[in-house]
Design goal:
The structure holds two protein chains of two kinds.
Chain A (H helix, E strand, L loop, with lengths): L2 E10 L4 E11 L3 E5 L6 H8 L7 E6 L2 E2 L5 H7 E4 L12 H11 L5 H11 L15 H13 L5 E5 L7 H14 L4 E6 L2 H4 L4 E6 L2 E6 L1 H4 L3 H6 L6 H11 L10 H9 L3
Helix pairs in contact in A: 3-4, 3-5, 4-5, 5-6
Chain B lengths: L2 E10 L2 E10 L2 E7 L5 H9 L6 E6 L2 E2 L7 E4 L12 H6 L9 H14 L16 H13 L5 E5 L7 H15 L4 E5 L3 H5 L3 E6 L2 E6 L1 H4 L3 H8 L8 H14 L2
Parallel strand pairs in B: 3-8, 3-9, 6-7, 7-8
Antiparallel strand pairs in B: 1-2, 1-4, 4-5, 9-10
Helix pairs in contact in B: 3-4, 4-5
The chains are: A alpha/beta, B alpha/beta.
């Protein structure tokens, strides 16, 4: 079972801490949203978990292995990061070679089978001989997922992923992620409260600190906290508040669906 | 001032874009549409950086070959193009060979950095010491430093929020009102909503051309439509409409 344990970590690039005293634990097929504005420390935190930045204060354990000792490749092999811009991730002129890059580098067995399965699950098997750069935006995102899937990581981090797609494309990708990684831990790193709604836990970062850690219902409706973090509340929550200010009181809600229902039932 | 593509065609790999005609006028135009529809290609054609196979590119009626003069292009993730040893010299780079005197170059670079809200304390630091949002703003400063009459931007707000987002949005709003031609390829509903005109691209062709309210699909417009309240991308208008619907039930 995948697990992450972040234990009282702090980090500085040289001029003041960008991460200070951050702790959280997660295990199993959790769906976590790491919510924070630009400069809140989200990206630094991911780089520390993945061992891309050296951790000096505190400790991070992935599946029980500390990033400080132990083989960092063992940890990275368990973590798949889906970046914002798929174009920056391609390393090979042929899609199936690109998909094989991860497992080859981790010396994993059965590479051909892994590549075939990954491309099939992401609906790209027919495109396996194509040049990744010539795929459409949505296909490139799926190619990025295939490359990660091939190493069979247990912890998936979506770092402002799919923001280059339109709303429909984003929904499609999120559904695909939930299907192919239903037993893995999925951590969504985002500055959009609406993107965080579907998580079962929201960790709110501001100025390198965790200022809230709870369910979407509690964190995403707390205006004071969200304001402190420089985050706009979800659309439905903002609409509910604006309507309340006009004298129309609706029950607590989070999603557009819930807002619609509350409006239909209003009398 | 007008920038036009007339019956323009290109072929790139397996993507064919043909017989496209489009005129940009002063003000802000949002170019939107699905991923892979050809938005970026069209923007690059408008900049003159992508040679046409047939058709022509006209600036105020005169044919242009090569890059359109006075046109600044903000590419996707422009922060990746930063390369100088410090932020200031990066921003001033395009002016170095413009024939301007040293003090003029300094003044212009300082003005561009101030417009983009880069703190003076950071001007002489490495671009790589800036945050992602600051790097984006510094890169945009490097484009506007030469005072372009035309600005073409590809997803300029993607990945930004808070302070950086507000500054970039304010920049587009001010440039929109300054008599320049400004066009942005975007999925951002707020940037689209403040545009004077929205062009919707589908499969390399213009599928719609009009006011933001008529064309944009965003969380707000989806919600508004599903409540039977018509299309709008304005939060305030949606609140008004819901309030009057609820008020009617009292």
């Amino acid at each position: 079972m995948p697990s992450i344990s972040v234990e009282n970590i702090s980090f500085s690039y040289g001029r003041g801490d960008v991460i200070s005293s951050v702790s959280f634990c997660a295990e199993g097929a959790a769906r976590i949203a790491l919510l924070g504005s630009n400069g809140s420390g989200k990206s630094t935190l991911i780089k520390l978990i993945d061992g891309l930045l050296p951790l000096k204060r505190g400790d991070i354990k992935v599946n029980g292995c500390s990033v400080k000792d132990g083989d960092i490749r063992r940890i990275r092999e368990k973590i798949g990061i889906v970046f914002q811009d798929p174009d920056s991730q391609f390393v090979s002129p042929v899609l199936e070679e690109d998909t094989a890059f991860g497992p080859e580098n981790y010396d994993l067995p059965d590479i051909a089978e892994r590549v075939r399965k990954s491309l099939e699950l992401t609906g790209l098997y027919e495109a396996r001989k194509r040049m990744p750069q010539t795929l459409s935006g949505g296909e490139k995102e799926r190619a990025q997922l295939a490359g990660i899937l091939a190493s069979e990581p247990e912890i998936i981090m979506l770092d402002e992923s799919f923001t280059m797609l339109d709303e429909e494309g984003r929904k499609e990708m999120r559904t695909l992620v939930d299907t192919i990684w239903k037993d893995s831990m999925v951590i969504t790193i985002t500055h959009s409260a609406d993107e965080a709604i579907s998580a079962d836990r929201v960790i709110l970062l501001s100025g390198g600190r965790i200022i809230a850690d709870g369910t979407p219902e509690t964190v995403l409706t707390d205006y004071k906290l969200l304001e402190e973090a420089g985050i706009k509340a979800p659309l439905a929550v903002r609409l509910r508040k604006a309507l309340e200010e006009r004298g129309f009181k609706l029950p607590p809600l989070l999603t557009a669906e819930e807002l619609k229902e509350a409006i239909w039932n209003y009398h | 001032m007008e920038l036009s593509l007339v019956n323009a065609s290109i072929r790139r790999d397996d993507f064919l874009l043909s017989d496209l005609s489009l005129t940009l006028k002063e003000g802000l135009t949002a170019i939107t549409g699905k991923s892979g529809s050809g938005k970026t290609t069209i923007l690059t054609m408008l900049s003159g950086l992508l040679p046409l196979r047939s058709g022509s590119l006209l600036l105020s009626g005169k044919e242009v070959s090569g890059q359109v003069p006075g046109c600044g292009v903000i590419f996707q993730f422009p922060e990746r193009q930063l390369f100088s040893e410090n932020v200031f010299s990066d921003v001033a780079f395009s002016l170095r060979h413009s024939g301007l005197g040293k003090s003029d170059v300094k003044d212009k670079a300082a003005a561009a950095l101030s417009i983009m809200g880069i703190d003076e304390a950071k001007w002489y630091e490495s671009p790589f010491s800036l945050s992602g949002g600051e790097r984006r703003r510094a890169a945009i400063a490097g484009v506007i430093v030469s005072d372009p009459r035309i600005v073409l931007a590809d997803e300029p707000t993607v990945g930004l929020d808070g302070h950086s987002y507000d500054i970039v949005m304010r920049f587009f709003s001010e440039f929109r009102d300054s008599g320049r031609i400004v066009a942005a390829v975007t999925h951002d509903p707020d940037l689209t909503a403040m545009s004077d005109r929205v062009i919707l691209i589908d499969n390399g062709q213009i599928a719609g051309d009009g006011l933001p309210d008529d064309l944009v699909s965003s969380g707000i417009s989806e919600l508004s439509l599903s409540l039977g309240l018509g299309r709008t991308v304005s939060f305030d208008i949606l609140v008004d409409r819901i309030a009057s619907m609820l008020g009617g039930r009292r």
